[in-house]
């Protein structure tokens, strides 16, 4: 399949057309040709829509860079403030939101044989199929009928993941988000928009009434903080191939993730094993990794065993719930359109000491979802939860 604007990967400089592509870039960008593509796009991100439109008229090379849909996606999200109706591309979506009377002509798409990995790779990742080989391994235990004591002894205290098959009850109540669903069906983004709503219980109280925390996770010591507790629960909705990038859950908490609709591919590594292609900063506050999940799967999944550990992998299906132990690295790739899940972070006696140590960190960047005053307030509850200090 060809890139819609004719862009080619930069490896083409070693084959046919390399000289012509280099000449096209040099002549078309003029003095800007000395800049790497990353720097050029950083400059273009500072331009408004009118400036992008004017620059696109300067040359074929400028036209290609100004068509980069991530630029128009940023403008839509920044200026339209949710008042957009996805039109198949972010540029067309922006035009529809800002100039409703505009109608793009049905002209033959323009092809410019510019060579750029930065422009080509997002399109490749967005259009690539999910490799069936990524879905073959399923080495996370599935359990049902566990008591709280059994769960704590067998999984929470040893800090091991497990899938629980009997705690999520899936109803048939439809959830309609017209604009989001239209985008979800039609988008071709490398990084699809991922709805991650931490306030859903306040903005839609009826949703909060539709689920109860499973008994295995009911003892949540963060509840001692009341309204000042850190962010802890989210409604997650995402289209096919969307998902969360490599991360550890905040504040050394454990978590559970229950799928209401769809399915998710999970890959997990224990706290002491850094996934291939991932580079955390020394203090852990920042993480460098491939831009999208698809890029990681396409580039690093086959090397997943090269870090001295075979990761835990599974496909979490509708009606199943995954326990994610504290500080485990993990990613989740949505395998179906409009995958819906609920996730919640919690603190139990089994991981309280780790959470308190994290909250007392000297680096504010390592503490998520709460103020310094809230952290101090939490540690003051020590006697009430029984000598875990």
Automatic annotation (TrEMBL):
Which InterPro entries is this protein grouped with?
A: Cupin_8 (IPR041667), F-box-like_dom_sf (IPR036047), F-box_dom (IPR001810), JmjC_dom (IPR003347), JMJD6_ArgDemeth/LysHydrox (IPR050910)
Domain JmjC, by residue range, is 202-363
Annotated coiled-coil positions are: none
One GO molecular-function entry: cis-regulatory region sequence-specific DNA binding
Q: One of this protein's Pfam families, by short name?
A: F-box-like
Q: Which domain of life is it from?
A: Eukaryota
Tell me the ranges covered by the F-box domain, including all copies: 29-75
A single Gene Ontology CC annotation of this entry is: nucleus
Q: Which family does it belong to?
A: Belongs to the JARID1 histone demethylase family.
Q: What is this protein called?
A: F-box protein
């Amino acid at each position: 399949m060809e890139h819609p604007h004719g862009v080619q990967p930069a490896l083409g400089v070693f084959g046919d057309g390399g000289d012509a592509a280099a000449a096209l870039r040099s002549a078309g960008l003029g003095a800007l040709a000395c800049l790497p593509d990353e720097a050029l796009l950083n400059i273009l991100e500072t331009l408004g829509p009118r400036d992008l439109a004017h620059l696109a008229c300067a040359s074929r090379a400028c036209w290609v860079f100004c068509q980069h849909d991530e630029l128009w996606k940023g403008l839509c999200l920044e200026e339209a403030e949710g008042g957009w109706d996805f039109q198949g591309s972010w540029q067309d979506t922006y035009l529809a939101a800002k100039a409703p009377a505009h109608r793009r002509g049905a002209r033959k798409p323009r092809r410019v044989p510019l060579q750029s990995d930065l422009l080509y790779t997002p399109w490749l990742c967005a259009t690539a199929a999910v490799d069936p080989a990524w879905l073959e391994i399923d080495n996370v235990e599935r359990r049902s009928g566990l008591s709280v004591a059994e769960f704590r002894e067998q999984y929470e205290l040893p800090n091991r993941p497990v899938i629980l098959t009997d705690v999520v009850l899936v109803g048939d109540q439809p959830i309609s988000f017209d604009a989001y669903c239209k985008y979800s069906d039609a988008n071709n983004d490398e990084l699809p928009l991922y709805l991650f709503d931490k306030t859903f219980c306040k903005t839609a109280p009826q949703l909060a009434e539709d689920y109860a925390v499973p008994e295995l996770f009911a003892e949540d010591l963060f509840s001692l903080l009341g309204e000042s507790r850190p962010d802890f629960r989210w409604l997650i909705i995402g289209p096919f191939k969307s998902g969360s990038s490599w991360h550890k859950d905040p504040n050394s908490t454990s978590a559970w993730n229950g799928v209401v609709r769809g399915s998710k591919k999970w890959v997990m590594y224990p706290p002491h094993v850094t996934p291939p292609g991932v580079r955390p900063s020394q203090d852990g506050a920042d993480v460098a990794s491939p831009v999208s999940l698809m890029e990681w799967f396409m580039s690093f999944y086959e090397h997943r065993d090269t870090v001295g550990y075979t990761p835990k992998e599974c496909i979490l299906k509708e009606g199943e719930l995954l326990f994610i132990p504290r500080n485990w690295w993990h990613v989740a790739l949505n395998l179906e359109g409009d995958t819906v899940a609920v996730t919640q972070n919690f603190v139990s006696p089994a991981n309280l000491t780790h959470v308190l140590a994290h909250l007392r960190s000297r680096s504010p960047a390592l503490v998520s979802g709460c103020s310094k005053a809230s952290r101090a307030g939490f540690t003051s509850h020590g006697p009430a939860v029984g000598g875990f200090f």
